[in-house]
Amino acid sequence: MKSIDVCLTPDLLHLHAIDNSIVVVADIFRATSCMVTGLAYGIESITPVATVEECYAYQQKGYFAAAERNALKVEGFELDNSPFSYMDDRLVGGHVAMTTTNGTLSITKAKADAVKVLVGAFLNLGAVANYLQSQSYDVLVLCAGWKGRVNLEDTLFAGALVEALKEEYMIAEDSALMAMRAYQQAQDDLLGYVSNSSHVRRLQRLGIQKDISYCLQRDLYDVVPILRGSTLVGI
């Protein structure tokens, strides 16, 4: 039987064997929510990179460029880390390079060894679950967290995916069980459940309440971003 596991922070990824796994990266507030939104709104591809310097190099090649550090846009780049920035008609058919504090770093860490890397968010939860049900590999949900620390919103997404797949996948370790039970508690009021979490407080201080509410909506989009080489495209 296939198994599903959860890695609560990329700093723990070295403890997981992922050579037979599809890794689903989740950075709910806000990188993976941006990626799902952008591809759903017609962006052709998104190239996630670990550093601002790499992102700038893509910008010099003509890419739209998105750079975020500590929840703020880096000066000199077109896009920030708000999903609403990715609903712009001028981006349709375009190519975006993106670097963020946590999400793109997690993708970079996973891509060398995973069978496939997908991007997950509450926005495409059902589409990701449906895709995984058609695959023959184990699954690891990689929570981007915050600078190596565990965070609540990514853990809740991981738990939601475990809940959706629990009939087809063996729950491998306690982290997956903990995440699922947290989601079961939170599912009827996700916004209330995360209201005092560290990243929500961080974003609220910056006046980004609408992003929080948006990113907690379930199943707005059918797109599943998948890494092809170094670039995310929608399937």
TrEMBL record:
Keyword Ribosomal protein attributed: no
Cofactor(s) it depends on: Mg(2+)
Molecular function as annotated in GO: 2-phosphosulfolactate phosphatase activity; magnesium ion binding; sulfopyruvate decarboxylase activity
UniProt entry keywords in alphabetical sequence: Hydrolase, Magnesium
Reactions it catalyzes: (2R)-O-phospho-3-sulfolactate + H2O = (2R)-3-sulfolactate + phosphate
Protein origin, superkingdom: Bacteria
InterPro entries linked to this entry: ComB-like (IPR005238), ComB-like_sf (IPR036702)
Entry EC no(s): 3.1.3.71
Keyword Signal attached: no
Family membership noted in the UniProt record: Belongs to the ComB family.
Protein name: Probable 2-phosphosulfolactate phosphatase
Originating gene: comB
